[in-house]
Write a structure and sequence with these properties.
Elements lengths: L9 H6 L11 H10 L6 H6 L11 H4 L7 H9 L25 H7 L3 H26 L1 H13 L2 H5 L3 H20 L10 H31 L12 H8 L8 H7 L8 H10 L5 H41 L5 H8 L3
């Protein structure tokens, strides 16, 4: 077999197609390739089949498999969303086997907290709530605060000599009254409420404060004109207080705490004397708001005591279960000696 030389005529080689890659091969070699090759090749197929077009470059989302999925895949992805927690970056169900034993950090910290840590958390939450009352009152008194700053910067010599006493007095009264309104409306309660409800209480407190100022101006104008003093309804009706303080969608102890709240008459005499001093020298409107704020503070303190009592009850229940199961710790044994 002459595979290494050309045994065909020049005419046969000239008749072969120019674009046929096997056209210049020896005929005997071509016959051998047709017999032995599993794929049958013809020159007509090579001419008819155009080369495939180049693929467009893949985008970044295609490389990360983030392109839009068909409806069937989307439905399957939504069904598998429950298998992975929200902390996962892949909500389509990927790596679900790695998330089976996952526990949030907050859950782990709560499970490993001691009784002292739980008590500190409750007290810290109450202190933080009192600090939030002050911050909300300052936000409502932003205009009065701006007037004080403007007085020190652009005020006359008389205002500067008196250290802007009138503006500071107005700001101090605004802060005190706004804090009283916030407490009276239930802003001090330790219930876990959404931020929208807190903002609603804050805006309503600002509305009530300016309503009180309008009533005072109307009374002063009537006195100056010698007209009878107009009468106004109470600034804080009982229904307004209930709408904000007792409705809590996330609280599970609303009914139990509302029944267990104490009144001012049930407080010790020393505490009652301190509360009476707080309302001395106040105008009727201010006295009304301050009394409601005192009631709200008493209610918040009662709720705090109930939370602490519930925490101790859960602790005693856990100790009892460990004692019955024979898993009593050294701390449980020491606390039983001292009757804790």
């Amino acid at each position: 077999m002459g595979w290494f030389w050309d045994s065909s005529s020049n005419k046969e080689s000239s008749d072969s197609p120019n674009n046929d890659p096997l056209g210049k091969l020896d005929p005997t070699l071509r016959e051998f390739l047709k017999k032995e090759s599993p794929i049958k090749y013809t020159a007509s197929e090579a001419q008819a089949t155009p080369p495939p077009p180049p693929e467009p470059p893949k985008s970044y989302t295609d490389q990360l498999n983030l392109s839009q999925q068909p409806p069937s895949q989307q439905s399957s992805g939504h069904s598998s969303e429950s298998s992975v927690p929200r902390e996962s970056l892949y909500q389509d169900g990927r790596y679900a086997h790695l998330w089976k034993t996952y526990r949030p950090l907050l859950e782990i910290e709560n499970a490993t907290k001691s009784d002292q840590d739980k008590l500190l958390d409750i007290l810290q939450g109450y202190k933080e709530r009192k600090a939030q009352v002050g911050r909300a009152a300052l936000e409502n008194c932003a205009l009065e605060h701006w007037e004080v700053n403007d007085c020190f910067r652009n005020g006359g010599w008389k205002a500067r000599m008196t250290m802007c006493r009138a503006e500071n007095k107005q700001l101090e009264r605004c802060y005190m009254m706004q804090a009283r309104f916030l407490k009276a409306l239930g802003y001090l309660s330790t219930f876990e409420r959404p931020a929208e409800l807190d903002e609603k209480i804050q805006m309503h407190a600002d509305t009530l404060y300016h309503r009180m100022l309008d009533q005072e101006r109307a009374i002063e104008a009537a006195k100056a004109a010698g007209e009878p003093i107009p009468s106004f309804p109470p600034i804080l009706p009982s229904s307004t207080d209930k709408d904000f303080s007792t409705t809590s969608p996330t609280s599970t102890t609303t009914t139990s705490t509302s029944k267990a709240l104490i009144t001012a008459d049930q407080l010790p005499p020393k505490t009652q004397a301190l509360l009476k001093k707080r309302v001395e020298g106040l105008s009727p409107k201010e006295r009304e708001v301050e009394e409601k704020a005192i009631v709200a503070e008493i209610a918040a303190g009662a709720r705090l005591g109930i939370q602490i009592g519930e925490m101790y009850q859960e602790t005693d229940k856990a100790k009892k279960e460990r004692r019955e199961q024979g898993k009593q710790t050294v701390g449980d044994q020491i606390s039983s000696w001292f009757g804790w």
